[in-house]
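Narrative summary of target 7.
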Amino acid sequence: MPQQSGDAPHATAGYVAPPVDHESLVIILSAGGSPLDGGSLGALADAAVVWVRVECEGRAACLAARVRHGDPPDAFRDRVRRLGAARGWAVTVASGRPLG
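Modeled conformation, tokenized:
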């Protein structure tokens, strides 16, 4: 498909999407850390947010998301916790069953 004006660059023909073998539930709480919104998990490489819900009141916010990822559940949990710690968030990750 040709590039259209205003389009983001299309993936090259050799691009292969990362495998997505697992699904986890991510809960993030923020009480004044970095802003929390529906795009907050966009910094996670090789992960796809299936659904997300955010509730806010004042400076407090809570995000719940179902995320598909290729890394093992323990590695994903560590990765999300590091992301949260860097932003001042409290994070809980519940591993779901493997996909497939």
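The beta strands are 22-31, 47-57, 60-69, 90-98.
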